[in-house]
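[recover] target loaded
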């Protein structure tokens, strides 16, 4: 059954935002599914988040179905407020300001007060007078019948067995009876329907005669269910009998239309429904009534009001204790309150507001993530004043109401709203104050309440619009900075590819470099050994002065060759890595090419810096060896005797070697410092390890 408001055409500005949002969402989708998206998974993930935000907020605004749910413990006054808003009085005019609760209840169309608590939620919508019932799942109704039958059978036939009473207030009537105990009793509102449907009503429940005091009706002397049960020695036979009496399959009626005085007709119909009196009624899962107006308007329409199934009454059972998590077993309420178009009116009693709903507020705020990002924008607090204001130590009623509102506002602010979504700015007491109203419906409280609710619907709508605008802005920012972000993603990918490809080469060549440094003259010695003795002799005899094949030329070419052998693999690997990356289509644009070129260049410079440092070290150390280490020369000395002993010869070789280093790597010394700085800044640690190694 659909009783939703038709979609309301949004104003021009909103329409523009919504069409922008649609385009952006499509663009984001395209972006994250485009070719090469695997290369920037972080960006794609961000795009996905932005798309989800856009789509979900858009969807909310595409289907505006505002409604106002009244949530409170039983007897706080939900139904009374709704009855007053929608003007549901038997004689149209509200009762006089000095009416007692009893008079009020007798004139209200909605069942109020003790005995008027309903077994399901009641929705009030604008339209032609009508009552509709949404039926409960048959299995659920059957389970309720069975529980009732078992309870009544035990009460009649097994009175000595300890009853499981008082049952926990959260009990919804579908638990297994504990072993050894009497099955738990159903909640009174539900038992009332079950009895009605089974044709075994308790005589006192049909007339709600008790006032707001919350006192229970006097128990009936003869319980017909109990009497009937006495005739059934077998429990299962009694259960079957109750099921037979209830005739669940025959109960198919879902609609009631007015006859005679519509207002009286509606009141009677509702009372009969909640007492299970109609022969053809199912067990109601929810009741929808249509009346001329709900009293709250938005966009030229009436906003439906929902009277939710009350939370367990407070103080009636175990000395005023309230469950810490009132929504724990109320999936129905959680879903209703989660809906982004539900304005939540939390009801509080006048005595000590926001009690008894403090825990409810706390739980809602604790679970703000579950209830969605606009929870606080949809929540208001109504303090129900049943005519008590001004009776205490206050100058007048107005002062006392104000004081109660302040108290609730402080309480709301102290909950730390808005919660859960990374908000920095919490409500001030003033912010919270605009969401609290103390209402006495008999003393002109109706209009201010309507105003409060209208504002709440507007606040809720603008919150949704603001959130969509925010998502649009985020998506626009994303695309604005996408060029940079993509370039950065490319850079990160390139850097890590180079690092990955170079590090094995670094490890290997580092080993070679160490070996070389520990035995600098080995290449030279190898070179000498490769020469024919007569050639070697001529090299030495020329005393290092000839143009070719003299000793220092050999030393230098051997060192150069060794250095190249160590360094070439670095350079090759830098080239290979560049080529490999460039073969990937993702890098085949200006950005990609320049990022790779930059990184290759940076790596090449790292290698060169290493080279310079290494050469400097080699020269210094080789020079020492050449000058001081007699062993190097002693073989030559022994063999040829001449010239080698001349100290000037060694000096010339050493000097020449130094000059070689300068030629090989110009401006060696200043570069050395720069290379060291570079090493410190090198993120890969390659140069550092090269130097320190
Ligand atoms: N005298 C008086 N009684 C009120 C007023 N508002 C609510 N009540 C009584 O408080 C009780 C609230 O019950 P009800 O609205 O059924 O609470 P619900 O269980 O939350 O729906 C009823 O008996 C009302 O008559 C008021 O302004 N004046
Ligand atoms: Mg009620």
């Amino acid at each position: 059954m659909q009783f939703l408001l038709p979609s309301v055409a949004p104003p021009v500005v909103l329409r523009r935002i919504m069409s922008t949002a649609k385009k952006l969402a499509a663009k984001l989708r395209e972006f994250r599914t485009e070719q090469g998206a695997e290369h920037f998974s972080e960006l794609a993930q961000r795009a996905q988040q932005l798309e989800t935000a856009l789509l979900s907020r858009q969807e909310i605004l595409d289907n505006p179905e505002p409604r106002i749910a009244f949530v409170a413990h039983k007897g706080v006054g939900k139904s009374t407020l709704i009855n007053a808003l929608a003007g549901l009085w038997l004689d149209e005019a509200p009762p006089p300001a000095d009416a007692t609760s009893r008079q009020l209840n007798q004139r209200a169309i909605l069942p109020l007060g003790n005995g008027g608590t309903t077994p399901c939620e009641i929705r009030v919508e604008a339209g032609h007078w009508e009552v509709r019932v949404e039926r409960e799942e048959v299995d659920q109704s059957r389970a309720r019948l069975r529980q009732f039958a078992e309870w009544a059978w035990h009460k009649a036939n097994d009175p000595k067995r300890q009853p499981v009473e008082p049952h926990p207030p959260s009990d919804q009537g579908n638990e297994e009876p504990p072993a050894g105990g009497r099955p738990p009793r159903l909640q009174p509102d539900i038992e009332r329907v079950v009895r009605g449907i089974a044709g075994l009503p308790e005589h006192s429940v049909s007339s709600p005669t008790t006032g707001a005091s919350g006192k229970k009706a006097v128990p009936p002397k003869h319980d017909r269910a109990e009497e009937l049960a006495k005739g059934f020695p077998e429990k299962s036979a009694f259960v079957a009998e109750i099921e037979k009496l209830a005739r669940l399959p025959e109960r198919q009626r879902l609609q009631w239309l007015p006859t005679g005085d519509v207002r009286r007709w509606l009141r009677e119909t509702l009372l009969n429904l909640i007492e299970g009196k109609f022969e053809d009624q199912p067990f109601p899962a929810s009741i929808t009534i249509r009346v001329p107006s709900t009293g709250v308007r938005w966009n030229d329409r009436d906003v439906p009001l929902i009277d939710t199934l009350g939370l367990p009454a407070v103080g009636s059972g175990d000395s005023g204790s309230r469950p810490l998590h009132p929504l724990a077993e109320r999936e129905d309420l959680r879903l209703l309150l989660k809906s982004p178009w539900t304005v939540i009116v939390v009801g509080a009693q006048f005595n000590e507001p926001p009690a008894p709903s403090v825990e409810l507020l706390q739980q809602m705020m604790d679970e703000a993530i579950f209830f969605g990002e606009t929870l606080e924008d949809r929540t208001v607090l109504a303090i129900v004043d049943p005519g008590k204001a001004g009776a205490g130590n206050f100058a007048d009623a107005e002062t006392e109401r104000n004081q109660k509102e302040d108290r609730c506002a402080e309480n709301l602010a102290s909950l730390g709203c808005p919660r859960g979504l990374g908000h920095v700015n919490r409500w001030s007491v003033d912010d919270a104050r605009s969401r609290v109203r103390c209402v006495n419906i008999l003393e002109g409280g109706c209009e201010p309440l309507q105003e409060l609710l209208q504002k709440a619907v507007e606040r809720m709508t603008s919150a949704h619009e603001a959130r969509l605008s925010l998502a649009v802005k985020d998506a626009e920012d994303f695309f604005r900075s996408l060029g940079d972000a993509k370039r950065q993603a490319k850079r990160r990918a390139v850097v890590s590819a180079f690092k990955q490809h170079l590090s094995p080469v670094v490890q290997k060549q580092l080993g070679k470099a160490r070996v070389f440094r520990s035995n600098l003259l080995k290449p030279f010695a190898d070179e000498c050994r490769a020469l024919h003795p007569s050639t070697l002799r001529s090299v030495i005899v020329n005393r290092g002065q000839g143009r070719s094949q003299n000793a220092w030329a050999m030393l230098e070419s051997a060192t150069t060759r060794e250095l190249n052998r160590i360094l070439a693999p670095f350079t090759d690997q830098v080239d290979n890595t560049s080529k490999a990356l460039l073969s990937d289509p993702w890098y085949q644009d200006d950005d990609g090419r320049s990022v790779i070129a930059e990184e290759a260049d940076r790596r090449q410079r790292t290698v060169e810096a290493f080279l310079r440092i290494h050469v400097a070290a080699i020269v210094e150390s080789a020079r020492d060896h050449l000058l001081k280490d007699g062993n190097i020369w002693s073989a030559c000395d022994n063999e040829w005797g001449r010239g080698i002993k001349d100290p000037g010869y060694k000096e010339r070789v050493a000097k020449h070697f130094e000059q070689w280093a300068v030629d090989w790597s110009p401006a060696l010394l200043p570069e050395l410092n720069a290379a060291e700085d570079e090493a410190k800044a090198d993120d890969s640690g390659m140069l550092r390890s090269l130097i320190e190694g």
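[recover] notes: The pocket of magnesium ion (ligand 2) is lined by residues 78-79, 117-118, 307, 310 (CB under 6 Å).
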